Amino acid sequence: MFTKLKEGLAKLIRIGLMFLCLGVIVQLLIGDDILGWDPIKNIQKAGSAFIGVIAFILLYLLFYKEKKK
């Protein structure tokens, strides 16, 4: 059960990061908010806290992939 939960969380994190990256790219292309969502401004407001969370997620995913090999 814990393994399924861990795999599900990893999938959700990947999907969330994909949506965030897609949102940033689309906002850079159109130069305006996306249906009221401003991902670039949200990232700028979060500052170092956001960078820390992303670094933690990336390290976790790297460790998870390394462990699978």
SSE pattern? HHH
Shape call: elongated
Strand content: under 5%
Total domains, how many?
Answer: 1
Radius of gyration: 15 Å
Which structural class matches the secondary elements?
mainly alpha
Runs with pLDDT <50, length 5+?
Answer: none
> What is the makeup of the main sheet?
none
Report the total helices.
3
Percent range for helical residues? over 70%
Distance between the termini: 21 Å
Number of strands: 0
Q: Output mean pLDDT.
A: 80
Question: How would you characterize this protein structure?
Answer:
The protein is built from 3 helices and no strands. It is mainly alpha-helical. It has one domain. The two termini are 21 Å apart. 0% of the residues are buried.
Summarize the structure.
This protein is mostly helical. It contains three helices and no strands.
Layout: helices, strands, pairs:
Blueprint: H1 2-30, H2 39-46, H3 48-68
What are its keywords?
single chain, 69 residues, mainly alpha, 84% helix
